[in-house]
Design brief:
The complex is a heterodimer. Chain A is α+β, with helices and mostly antiparallel strands. Chain A has helices at about 15-20, 40-50, 70-75, 125-135, 160-165, 210-215, 225-235, 265-270, 275-285; strands at about 25-30, 35-40, 55, 60-65, 90-95, 105-110, 115-120, 140-145, 150-155, 175-180, 185-190, 200-205, 220-225, 285-295, 305-310, 310-320, 325-335, 345-350, 350-360. Chain A has 9 helices and 19 strands. In chain B, the strands form 2 sheets. A 6-stranded antiparallel sheet of chain B has the order 1-2-3-9-8-5. A 3-stranded antiparallel sheet of chain B has the order 4-6-7. Chain B is α+β, with helices and mostly antiparallel strands. Classes of the chains: A alpha+beta, B alpha+beta. At the A-B interface, helix 2 and helix 7 of A face helix 1, strand 4, strand 6 and strand 7 of B. Chain A: It catalyses: N(6)-[(R)-S(8)-aminomethyldihydrolipoyl]-L-lysyl-[protein] + (6S)-5,6,7,8-tetrahydrofolate = N(6)-[(R)-dihydrolipoyl]-L-lysyl-[protein] + (6R)-5,10-methylene-5,6,7,8-tetrahydrofolate + NH4(+).
Chain lengths: ~375, ~120
Amino acid sequence: MSEETPEVDELGTLPLDAWHRTQGGRMVPFAGYEMPIQYEGIVAEHEWTRTSASLFDVSHMGQLSVSGDGAAHELEKLLPGAIESLKPGKMRYSLLLTEAGGIIDDLMVTNAGPHIALVVNGACKWDDIAHLREHLPDAITLNHYDDQALLALQGPKAGEVLEALVPGTGELTFMNAAFFDWDGVPLWVSRAGYTGEDGFEISVHAAQVEKLADALVADDRVKPAGLGARDSLRLEAGLPLYGHDLDQNIDPVSADLSFALTKKRRELGGYMGHGAVAARLADGGTIRRVGLKIEGRMPAREGALVFAGDTEIGRLTSGGFSPTLGYPIAMAYVAVEHAAEGTTMEIEVRKKRLPATVVPMPFVPHRYYRGK
Amino acid sequence: MARYFTDEHEWIDLEGDLATVGITDYAQEQLGDIVFVELPEVGSNVDKGGEAAVVESVKAASDVYAPITGEVMEANAALEEDPALVNTSPEEEGWFFRMTVGDKTELEGLMDAKAYKAFCDEL
């Protein structure tokens, strides 16, 4: 029996490292840190998240802020989304792009009042910081909150759990954020996540994160969950993962992320990569990210090639067995002429061909809380 | 019946000239939830140390090697219906395949239960 182990250089330690080990987390190298991949088991944690609430440590992600006169205006020169019109407490999913329209990172942008908060991918944060510093004017301040931890509480019971602990948080709706005071501990809470479920991301100082994690799992409705379940949940939710489904060779149109390109900004431009993105919007490009349902039970993984007859038409960028659906699912980039819903194709796994069909994403419906 | 273990975490039960092969409890614990097992075809020949099966957990695919050389006589059909048998009963109902024993001297380098336990304790 063998399994590939990724090579890593030096690993950082997250503030909750010891806590994870005490909770029975199995630690693996990820994004430069030792992180819990699972506690009691990926499927159990996945199902718990879909039915109750799970606590994920996402402290590896980069928490940044941009501030100063005209910060939103300057940021709009780097992102295709509308940032200047973002009202206080409102969030938006956006993308950092190269001049050629390639995706440097995907990120969450929030108008946090005194500054604009960014949450970026853990593996990309140092490159993002370098990119932002290089392109933002000197008068704009960029902060990296590397002493802040980030917890994600996700699942249908997340709302009632957090409301019981931090009154007022239940009032937030999806893609809204606010400051809260929890027993003297400042929390920056946003109603968002990456599992497709209702839930929150909670930014808290590293010195207080253990206290908060303990308080959350003290609720019987909450269990800790690891990266394994986070990955299977986000795949079912149809959400792309940077470094797998997105990279600098992929543009937003091919990635099927055109919703992140605000209508007005599509027309007016004024952001890095606009020329390339506009051209891609006009011609539709040659490849498209699609969701695939695979026949049978054998999962297909990242890197598997996709065929229409003898012709190679694409490649999987994420794939696995869906615990919720009970069959394998995948994301792939395929030639646009094969990207329509219902198109059939074959995926090659260990010299076998697995029949697959393009299906709409999300694979499992999102259950975000948009208010009563 | 004698049971042997490999340092790749397969177990092998020897009964006369027939051997039953599976993966150990330690291995299933490391893999986590198993969602699919690809078994060798009956009648195919496998070589000691060569790929004989693939076990897919939620997170990854892992190769299972043949502990000895021989011909596959039977594959465990129950795993097609219920791959999680490998998690719940790895060293009994979750067996992978039965094979002939081509060369008994190949068994000499394998571990017994006590040696295998000591081996796992070191990992």
